[in-house]
Amino acid sequence: MSSVLYDTPGPRAKRRNVVYTIAFVAVAALVGWWVLSALNDKHQLDANKWSPFVTDSNVWTTYLVPGLTETLKAAALAILIALPLGALLGIGRLSDHRWVRVPVGAVVEFFRAIPVLMLMMFAAALYREFTTISSDFRPLYAVVTGLVLYNASVIAEVVRAGVLSLPRGQGDAAVALGMRKGQTMLYVLLPQAVTVMLPALVSQLVVIVKDTALGGALLGFEDLLSQARQITANYGANTIATLVVIALIYIVLNGIITNLAGRLEQRLRRGRKSTAAAIPAQAAAPEAEVKSVSGA
Amino acid sequence: MFDFLDSGQYDLLGAFWVTAKLALYSAIGSLIWGTALVSMRVSPVPLMRSFGTAYVNLVRNTPLTVVLVGCLLGLNQTLGITLGGGRSEDIGFRLAVLGLVAYTGTFVCEALRSGINTVPAGQAEAARALGMSFTQVLTVVVLPQAFRAAVTPLANVLIALTKNTTVAAAIGAVDAAFLMKTMIENETDALFAVFAVFAFGFIVLTLPTGLILGWAAKRLAVKR
Question: Which of A140, B18, B40, B182 has the fewest Cβ atoms nearer than 10 Å?
């Protein structure tokens, strides 16, 4: 593969690349050896610390799968509530009426500026003080509330960008046909905007899945991450093995979602059924359609 | 309603100072690490390219909480790494900076890569025609323009980083989120006031960043 940044390697460049490769491998091997030997000293690499994940199905049925279920439940609830709420906020921000546009804008900007963790902690305290939700469900409620408030405002911005990215003519044509404002939005603008913003919405799911782990670490939510404590307590302090397995589950899960978002984006680019360009999955990255330098 | 501010019981400014320091150190570190990662991702050495890609894809898909908890449980409690910190809150702070750099570096890398993509191919071709090596092309011609184009995405990364510092509370750094947790438990009759104070603190931290860097992005953008 060649790139605009460097010439196709000739004999000397090839030799140099081999030297760099060897140097890089040497450094990587040194770091890897240091880490592995440190782990070995603490007996973290012993087979009995890793084998439960392969041989003992209990680890999966008692801890990991229920934890993953909680994580997915929270993420699914959050996206299902945040989507309609975000759409409403996004449309509200585009309103012709100042008294709708300005307050909605303030709400969106406020919840985007506050860390999700703080929203979650605040929600947990509110549920504790003012509601009778049993303490078993409170963490789930708190996590979902925090995620909904934050992600609804992010989705609102995505919706707004999606609608604004449509050519002006779409709205004008709808008005010329005698459609009312609500009809224009519902039948003309939103359906087109949804296809445009689908990749950005799907990749927002990754953010939601990742943020559920906050509840596990700080709010007593029994998600995938919180299972680490249980597993290390029951299987002989296999901290490293447990964390690696849990991280891998997150990585695979998010990898699948990212992959889906990427494929959707490609399909939209190829299909060009919509009149506007797809909003890239990595939101807020202005990608100019120039011949790229990085070749990758 | 806001009497807890005067009680002298809580060190609000101190907690936000820790948050600001966390954000600053991590920002500097992740800018350096992100630049190194993006250089690897576009380099002529195939192995470095695959390492960069693999690292970014792995770490970006791991929750930050898992990264930080891994730093505490794995690096500190299992391997006994303290990074030279004495008290547990110092260790928490240093490990949090390490974890935040490792995590945020991937986003900096992606922001810079989108910046590199805005540099017209002719720039790099001209540089190569002058006989520049890859390192020269990257450091003298492409990266300076990429940084200027990437100010807006980098600003978004910085704002996200500032908010992400709250996760450090999970590993014992005494930052704003840690203090908020304590105060929520002690001041149950002033919940809304406590939340308002911390929300205000974060708006004060993130809003100017967005405004200043938004202005800088316009000033610095390469006119094409």
Answer: B182
